[in-house]
Amino acid sequence: MAALDAEIREGVDRETVETVQSMAGKYKHGWNTEIEMEYAPKGVNPDIVRLISNKNEEPEWMTEWRLQAFERWTQLEEPTWAMVNYPEIDFQDQYYYARPKSMEEKPKSLDEVDPKLLATYEKLGIPLKEQMLLAGVEGAEDAGERKVAVDAVFDSVSVGTTFQAELKKAGVIFCSISEAIREHPELVKKYLGTVVPASDNFYATLNSAVFSDGSFVYVPPGVRCPMELSTYFRINAENTGQFERTLIIADKGSYVSYLEGCTAPQRDTAQLHAAVVEIVIEEDAEVKYSTVQNWYPGDENGKGGIYNFVTKRADCRGDRAKVMWTQVETGSAVTWKYPSCILRGDDSQGEFYSIAITNNYQQADTGTKMIHLGKNTKSRIVSKGISAGHAQNTYRGLVSMHPKAKNSRNYTQCDSLLIGSECGAHTVPYIEVKNNSSRVEHEATTSKVDDDQLFYCRQRGMDEEEAVALVVNGFCKEVLQALPMEFAMEAQQLVAISLEGSVG
Amino acid sequence: MSATLQKNTPAAPDLASALARPPRGGWVEAARAAAEARLEQTGLPGRRDEYWRFTRPDTLTAPEAGTAALLKDDEAPFFGGTDCLNLVFVDGAFDADASDKLEGTGLTIERLADVAATSDHWAQELYGVLEARGQKPVVRPLAAINTARATDGLLIRATGKVEKPIAIRYLRRDADADAMLHSVVRVEEGASLTLLENGPAAARFNSVLEVDLGDEAAFHHIRTQGRDHERREATHIFARLGRESLFKSFTLSANGALTRNECIIEMTGDDGVAHVAGAALGDGASGAFHHDDTIFVTHDALRCESRQVFKKVLRNGAVGVFQGKILVKAGAQKTDGYQISQSLLLDEDSQFLAKPELEIYADDVVCSHGSTTGAIDETALFYLRSRGVEKAEAQDLLVLSFLAEAIEEIDDADLAANINDRLAAWLRRRRS
């Protein structure tokens, strides 16, 4: 961490640097679980696709869908436009399916799950018990009746899902996607691939062919999901890619908050993670999707780590539908991720809050797309990128106002902070405005905080810089507080980071 | 970003095969051959190229220029009242009779066509050289083809403080003319020069201007592109700035079916200052209007300042494009980079497409960019109307105030006032 030991320059407080440092140095989820695994043969081809489909006991239409995606994938080229560099990936030199031997027979309840697996999640702070709260969350005593249902995915399979019965009472379906394909084929058939088509992009297409598991959520009309839902992804096996697929459907007037966490053991070789998340939001429904991405980032020399190539998209189909993406990206060697919002319904809303921290040789190319199609649609993008060591951090985003999206609004703010002279911070926004009743504002300066707030602070005797710092810090906290309680612990570490001295 | 263009296989005959190659020999031959090789490697830009995402290059790369109706009257140049060294090009050809003699105090000025055949020339170190430097990381084939094929242009060298601006008028007589000019400007250490350009030049105009500023040199550039509705134009400015030098360029574009103005600035000396600004007004009702400003500023020295200020007023299906990038290289500490692109859409049909980029590898810099798009502020309009200002006039006032930040980049008060009058006149003509 030589770069961080360098003298801390004016405008960046020590606390910020130390926080970034503390988050970078030690990866605390780098251990692995010794467990007997069974693998599909290395590589990907139609037989592997059939095998995965077969293992999941899928109906014929699903196998067919996968095979078509595979066929399409063979014609696609890996995208190169992102500002990331990594050695060529040999897609035939890795496992596409790995599951613990003990999961051969799907356990009927959590009591039957291999204790080793339960211990793994216990150690990660995600005990698979139907308890009131996740262990270790501060302020738990005040939280009252808060509950979190967890779907735990270990390599290629879902280990178990908690609180299923209680959710069922409310009409909410929360299970692994493999279970959903078997139990609720009509829903899966209706929605799968409608937000992220099987042919969408290189990684999404690969995922469509080989996804092994993931989570499925259906919230029926008018239902407010009685608890937070979450999925915890753990990659454990070596040389294995994880390809999970998440499908969330919020029917008319419903609400759900969904959390996602991810970790992986420390290994010298890079591992691929290519997920797809699809969210369908009908009229008046609202979905909050929060991620704390903490995959293994590789060591301080850039060796190993997860390649995180993820396609996430929410489709606000109905009027007044609302979606909010919040992400804290601290892990992965390479991140390629653009959670997007299609604002199709009139008056629908999309929000994207992101804090991306890269260190050592990490590279992140992340951002969002806000596609405004309906009238009076609103979107807001707040992105903070922090880069240290030799890392490269890029914000890449699109705001598109279609001709029919009258009276729409977008506000974008992206700030970056560089710590050390070997790293880079980049901003690549695309803005396309095709009607004049919409307003689009893009800015990337810390000095452009709200003038009224600044004025207020100044007239209370603060100098300009102090006032800016206060407002920006308050703002940053606001973003972090948008994260659900369960992520509070990890997020709190980030709150200390100020954005003084940040650049565009 | 993709560093190379998709190679476009020349199925149909394109500009490169249609254009004659200049005669061989002279100091310029080597530069032309190198540019030819660059062009060979990249091919001409195509619709699928990322750098041409918002603008279709087809009419710029077609073998024929095509016809562009002539505006009835020649526009009086905006520098009419200023004492200048006046030079005239008609359809891209130098008109010696209409021009002043090629001489001035503290200045040498020559035509490329006159001196290209000589064996040595001071411009040898710059011709095609700055253009080649500007081909990374993004290729600019329309500039390469210009270096390779242009046969005329001006080679200007300022050795002292040149009082009289050099003023170029580009006139049109032929509705189908295809013009290509390549000029080189060298402002020596401590010297200064002002270059003014006015007029439509041709039905299709491809221009390259290479500017090299020595330490403490100053260069002011103001141009207004022609009002001919159907003209198409691709211009490139490649500038390299020495220590404590000053570069200022302002462009006014009203009308024109297609305009692509690229400006590539490289700050190589400490404490340099570069400002590049533009105001564009487009009305799709008088034919197509597509205006693209593509700017690339590289900071490679300490304490440099760069500003990009681009404003567009669009109506009746007009399209405005801004692609701006600030690249701060490692070690370019204390950089101050600013970029603003704004557009005012006067009706529902117009479009603004922007890609304001930052790429930063130094940690002690201030770089900011902003981009906004929207309609006229109804509250401001209401305020003016409540003070008894008629609606059309109130709207024009607001448009002028919107453009003011770009106009303010012009240092000379008289020229700025003239540009402002021109804007007001353009707006008046469209009131109905």
UniProtKB/TrEMBL annotation, chain A:
<dbReference type="InterPro" id="IPR037284">
    <property type="entry name" value="SUF_FeS_clus_asmbl_SufBD_sf"/>
</dbReference>
<dbReference type="InterPro" id="IPR000825">
    <property type="entry name" value="SUF_FeS_clus_asmbl_SufBD_core"/>
</dbReference>
<dbReference type="GO" id="GO:0016226">
    <property type="term" value="P:iron-sulfur cluster assembly"/>
</dbReference>
<comment type="similarity">
    <text>Belongs to the iron-sulfur cluster assembly SufBD family.</text>
</comment>
<protein>
    <submittedName>
        <fullName>Fe-S cluster assembly protein SufB</fullName>
    </submittedName>
</protein>
<dbReference type="InterPro" id="IPR055346">
    <property type="entry name" value="Fe-S_cluster_assembly_SufBD"/>
</dbReference>
<feature type="domain" description="SUF system FeS cluster assembly SufBD N-terminal">
    <location>
        <begin position="169"/>
        <end position="224"/>
    </location>
</feature>
<feature type="domain" description="SUF system FeS cluster assembly SufBD core">
    <location>
        <begin position="233"/>
        <end position="475"/>
    </location>
</feature>
<dbReference type="InterPro" id="IPR045595">
    <property type="entry name" value="SufBD_N"/>
</dbReference>
<dbReference type="Pfam" id="PF19295">
    <property type="entry name" value="SufBD_N"/>
</dbReference>
<dbReference type="Pfam" id="PF01458">
    <property type="entry name" value="SUFBD_core"/>
</dbReference>
<dbReference type="InterPro" id="IPR010231">
    <property type="entry name" value="SUF_FeS_clus_asmbl_SufB"/>
</dbReference>
Automatic annotation (TrEMBL), chain B:
<dbReference type="InterPro" id="IPR055346">
    <property type="entry name" value="Fe-S_cluster_assembly_SufBD"/>
</dbReference>
<dbReference type="GO" id="GO:0016226">
    <property type="term" value="P:iron-sulfur cluster assembly"/>
</dbReference>
<feature type="domain" description="SUF system FeS cluster assembly SufBD core">
    <location>
        <begin position="177"/>
        <end position="402"/>
    </location>
</feature>
<dbReference type="InterPro" id="IPR037284">
    <property type="entry name" value="SUF_FeS_clus_asmbl_SufBD_sf"/>
</dbReference>
<protein>
    <submittedName>
        <fullName>Fe-S cluster assembly protein SufD</fullName>
    </submittedName>
</protein>
<dbReference type="InterPro" id="IPR000825">
    <property type="entry name" value="SUF_FeS_clus_asmbl_SufBD_core"/>
</dbReference>
<dbReference type="Pfam" id="PF01458">
    <property type="entry name" value="SUFBD_core"/>
</dbReference>
